[in-house]
Amino acid sequence: MPAGAFLKITASRVIALLALAALVGLLPWLSGRGAEYTILRARYSDREPTPEALAAVRAELGLEEGPGTLLLAWIRGSSAETSAPPGSATLPWGRALPPPWAFRSR
What we know:
The chain has 106 residues and is mainly alpha-helical. The chain has a domain at 25-65. 55% of the residues lie in helices and 0% in strands. It has helices at residues 3-30, 35-43, 51-61, 67-76. The longest helix is centred in the first third of the chain and has 28 residues, at 3-30. The chain is elongated and about 60 Å long.
């Protein structure tokens, strides 16, 4: 297989995978109910979806900004779950490394 054809196939598969991931991420908004409703039902199935409960979930997860802003923040890697204090080392998947003194033998 020529290199050009391989690159075309690989690029089209990567684009399709990214589009599928974006579509899955947007499903709560596309359903018309909103992500806060979906998360409330998944996390707290015993709670009623009152406006106050939905607002609490929205505020807890920062969903006020909408799907576009959240998707761009996730792509940039700047979500609240993966952020670390400035100047600290992080692993590729976003977890902060333990401080150097944690590795010293006793």
